[in-house]
Amino acid sequence: MTIEGGQGAAAGRRLRLGMVGGGEGAFIGAVHRIAARLDDRYELVAGALSSEPERAKASAAALHIAPGRAYGSFTEMAEREAARPDGIDVVAVVTPNHMHAAPVRAFAERGIHVICDKPLTHRLEDALELAEVVRRSGIVFGLTHNYTGHPMVRQAREMVAAGAIGPVRVVQVEYPQDWLTTRLEESGQKQASWRTDPARSGAAGCVGDIGTHAFNLAEFVTGLRCERLAAELSTFVQGRALDDNAHMLLRFAGGARGMLWSSQVAPGNENALRLRVYGETGGLEWAQEQPNHLLHSPFGEPPRLIRRAGAGASPAAAHASRIPGGHPEGYLEAFAQLYRELADQIAARLDRRQPDPASLLVPGLEEGLRGMRFITAAVESSRRDAAWTALEG
Amino acid sequence: MTIEGGQGAAAGRRLRLGMVGGGEGAFIGAVHRIAARLDDRYELVAGALSSEPERAKASAAALHIAPGRAYGSFTEMAEREAARPDGIDVVAVVTPNHMHAAPVRAFAERGIHVICDKPLTHRLEDALELAEVVRRSGIVFGLTHNYTGHPMVRQAREMVAAGAIGPVRVVQVEYPQDWLTTRLEESGQKQASWRTDPARSGAAGCVGDIGTHAFNLAEFVTGLRCERLAAELSTFVQGRALDDNAHMLLRFAGGARGMLWSSQVAPGNENALRLRVYGETGGLEWAQEQPNHLLHSPFGEPPRLIRRAGAGASPAAAHASRIPGGHPEGYLEAFAQLYRELADQIAARLDRRQPDPASLLVPGLEEGLRGMRFITAAVESSRRDAAWTALEG
Amino acid sequence: MTIEGGQGAAAGRRLRLGMVGGGEGAFIGAVHRIAARLDDRYELVAGALSSEPERAKASAAALHIAPGRAYGSFTEMAEREAARPDGIDVVAVVTPNHMHAAPVRAFAERGIHVICDKPLTHRLEDALELAEVVRRSGIVFGLTHNYTGHPMVRQAREMVAAGAIGPVRVVQVEYPQDWLTTRLEESGQKQASWRTDPARSGAAGCVGDIGTHAFNLAEFVTGLRCERLAAELSTFVQGRALDDNAHMLLRFAGGARGMLWSSQVAPGNENALRLRVYGETGGLEWAQEQPNHLLHSPFGEPPRLIRRAGAGASPAAAHASRIPGGHPEGYLEAFAQLYRELADQIAARLDRRQPDPASLLVPGLEEGLRGMRFITAAVESSRRDAAWTALEG
Amino acid sequence: MTIEGGQGAAAGRRLRLGMVGGGEGAFIGAVHRIAARLDDRYELVAGALSSEPERAKASAAALHIAPGRAYGSFTEMAEREAARPDGIDVVAVVTPNHMHAAPVRAFAERGIHVICDKPLTHRLEDALELAEVVRRSGIVFGLTHNYTGHPMVRQAREMVAAGAIGPVRVVQVEYPQDWLTTRLEESGQKQASWRTDPARSGAAGCVGDIGTHAFNLAEFVTGLRCERLAAELSTFVQGRALDDNAHMLLRFAGGARGMLWSSQVAPGNENALRLRVYGETGGLEWAQEQPNHLLHSPFGEPPRLIRRAGAGASPAAAHASRIPGGHPEGYLEAFAQLYRELADQIAARLDRRQPDPASLLVPGLEEGLRGMRFITAAVESSRRDAAWTALEG
């Protein structure tokens, strides 16, 4: 093995974790579990993994959850775990969008911390109401906009904030995929089915599923608020109920201008989230499929390839990094980063101390609401023929 | 030397070429001259190279133009060359935008063929009038949208037309540069000065200079007409008179949707024209800075890297190619391609025969007018807060 | 979240794991632990983590190992764990090279399965002796040539075996790094110290550390045996005791020819392991720093970019994959793959059933011996001025 | 058009050029002619283009050579051109390798300057003799190792010489192609036929054809002399008379070590010449297929992408550059660079002045002899089972 240094997984208190959703075949649940395990800060001890009792039970057994803590519903789970002395510290909610609100509320109201898959809910009004509940509860609440966990995304944010590229002028963000190029939902493919179904996904398809990631990434890195957008949502696949492509113009506070493109019908693109930010004195480029790299182009100098844990990598990047440069980290490690930082936050809460400030970047309620406003504004703008529409709040 | 085959420069009649503009220090003139020389189809024999007589004379001498054919004005040149039995067959007009119309008219009216730098003129009304004159004259008229001369652009067009990616849904075109990131025009840099001056460039800066190339490329490759656009033009550099960044939504006939971004304030980008086209069954990607490659992604298959003159290269690519695969061709070769094809057209005219159909793709009046309508619509839309604006005609 | 399908971590029996070495600050131990955790097939329950008692104890505590199972020496650990009814099923040996043999022997002789970091030992004669012991013991023995765990490496191997590129002619493998460009070992940096120390690393530096990975990868993917090599080992950094750069010619059984370059003094290279294999009908390229891609170039056709879990990905790649295409997996996931497959093998042994054949590709004794022969032959050849030297056995 | 500055083609005296070889279908002749034309420093006025009289005549006509100067043999051409007051200033010799020596001698002895395609001859003894003749003649002699004409190759050389990467330690050069993967010579393909024929190519196939380019590039950029090599030449295609793959270890004066790989049987590689040089304080990488880029990796800093005519481009790069950054130049422009510099040298000679020192880098006799010694040593070493063999002289 060839590793010249670097930090191992942070040691620290191991939290008791429960999960709602994520039974067998529900992919995102598996991702959350790997993310939770990776840095050894969680132990999965309880679950309401499926609304089908048999599946729930089988899934729990496969995951080494004790039979007594394999619940038939999140309500039951919330009640009984809250009552146990060794009840869960935190719950991960990994159900489809329309089923986020109820479990989040149930656990939050019992003081159990929550990690919720994005987007926050499937409707803005639900989100606003839920946010109120969560705020009042005082819990730690994390929303897994996982791309913010990448070391080089952290570094990009830090560099922009430090003025490395000067005041931002132009923001180009895009997130093309191709998996919905044909009418996959007709085949019964589970992911395709619910993501193209307004009842389960909300008013937006591609915009809600991946456009929100792109939007979140742009705001996260630039530190700017998008104030208005002009959106054209399209549905290219005949018979599909929601948009599968979105084109938008963006206006940011302070005068920066941008574009956002998200698509699920762009053949050749697997998961090609990419952000480019241009300021008065330089540019930055980051692409999800090559996440260990960040291209920094100071105006008037040759572009520099900054690599995770390599020369020029910043403290923020190091904080989010596990292994030496040249040993690629990927999607799961970035996801795990959010879990690790939430563990820091929750452990600090349990231990009645201040958390490490470096762990406070995990997206939460605020980002969840921004995402819902973005979706809502995009749908509204598109209905009004791409008229400029404000993101209130 | 290692060349395994390929075609040499096509032999053929050598034309007598004159040039208007392009004196010492005027860069684009030098490019046109190299392009004209590369395939040995032109001999530069006359010029009105500068409005300053001394510079005109010195430039002509440096270019081996006989003193008697170094003219003080394009008017004089048009008259005298038209009168010579060995007068020029064709003239290249390489002046700044606002000085295209007058010389084009002067030569066209005398039946001398014209190669004109883009855009056609600096105002749409002039362009329409000029187009009438040129049409009536019956001359061969070429407009140097040089990026259409690239072999892999030709192949992309051919593939789209042949249905290789199915009906087009999404068109993403962008053309970022960074050379106007600061207020370069204040330094007296000649290119920056006239390109940011409304009197010489017209109503658009970045949009007219490079946005038109992007627009032309998108229409050329897809074969689709853009019907409406919603544009936000920005001027980020304080004190600049014209736009230096443009964001647009595009609607094409037949339902395709697209985006266009052009910028001259995007640090790190030299000349990063790039086109991506997505259809129902596949995608295509081409980037000007790596012009020998075309990425073809048939949906459900691994992306394929098609290389100029390599496996999978089409007849259209071969037609526009000079040397074997792996030996990169570039900007000048693509520019020369237009010159070569115009030579074919003009020689055919002189010889009273039909030209090779493969040589008829050179942009001309029609593309020139499309470009002017694009510029006009973009400026108009931006004035109306990015309202959808039709590209009439 | 945007994941369109794919397989989650395989469920299965969770094994009790012990670790020798890998205390605080010893990086590779942390990598092994993450790898063990990632697919939830191991629980770390015992350790002899350091030869310094205090460090051993602190490390164990940080890793949630019960105090009674934090041992002061591997001998004690082997004895006591073998005696417990709930003793460890398997031990990971992650000490420096010269300390592999003794613990491996201790556990093997007690029937405890072993996962050993590479190379097998620091001297060939030890390796041969150890191999005998291990063979007689009948245990499952895995050697973490981790790069063989990458999905696209698996696919490359499968493709070569299936004749996708025809009989192999040329093998180009290289593994440059730059971290030893200066005399880092003088700074006290721990990794640099032992890796440049003959007493702890053996007769080879760069060759043993990373050259073996390159060699292993070449044999793994091609399925060919390297029979002879001609090596020039260099030490460029003054005062260094072992080689920091190696150049080799390789001859494979069946007539294929190759080159191997490994270096730790090549500035700009982080961990740039890269393999290219050319056969009679096609070529394959894989690079560790972009591990989700495999370039396949069938002769006479455009190169194809095969992506992990994308179109064209094979069953072997799917077997080694966790998440959908476009979501990059990296170094840790490949390392975890070996752990997962060893868990399959060990669980099958415990359950007295046949393991999944797909899990039998993990390098073991054979590859460990090949690696030692490679190191030995390289050192010998270099001493004899790059004379051809056989890899016996 | 979008060009922000840059230099046009240098004006200067136009030379009268003759050509030996290069008739219709002989590809390299066409390349030399384009190269000669590109910067307008030559006019092709005479030729002995083919040994077949009809082809010679037709070729001359197609190239606008006056009938009286279309010769049936180079001997006749040398005599008659030397006798004309307006005879050629310089001749380009573009015949197959075994036919370089005789015409070079014929023109040199008459004081006519010579541009010769590489390699110098097909046998070392001929080369040595020829070199004597050329030296005594006092003519300007250029050998078209065209890759040395690339701006970024020039910059790399300049940077190494200036110490930008410190003393060189490691040199990795490779030149893979795939066009001889099958027995193309059997098909009658002209290039394949003579390049695999010992009678016309000399004792080496791939080594002579492209290995020499790689070798020349390595010495040109590093400024180091390769003193010894150990080579394994292989012929993978059955029935082929010469090597089609070569693997070599290299030892340079001063202690640098290197590897050279050239192949014509590596599927997927078109013309993938690539050089990497590593010194004590940095690394440099250049690849022919992306020739406008040079990657500079100062140790301990992020790698920097230096682009032709962009930030960080050096005077040497500017000297060899025609158009602004981001507008790719390629193979023909680099080839033309040698022609331009030879025109500068010859014009200076004719004008009895000193040439621009920047024009003196064109390879000539010395490089030609180095190339022949390289070929000879490689063949000799391979015959002796890859024994170390000196490059004398």
From TrEMBL, chains A, B, C, D:
The protein, known as: Gfo/Idh/MocA family oxidoreductase
Q: Sorted alphabetically, which InterPro entries does this protein's record hold? A: Gfo/Idh/MocA-like_OxRdtase_N (IPR000683), Gfo/Idh/MocA_oxidoreduct (IPR051317), GFO_IDH_MocA-like_dom (IPR055170), NAD(P)-bd_dom_sf (IPR036291)
The record lists the organism as Roseomonas marmotae
Tell me where in this chain the GFO/IDH/MocA-like oxidoreductase domain is found.
Answer: 153-285
Sequence ranges assigned to domain Gfo/Idh/MocA-like oxidoreductase N-terminal in this UniProt record: 16-142
Q: List the Pfam families hit by this protein, alphabetically.
A: GFO_IDH_MocA, GFO_IDH_MocA_C3
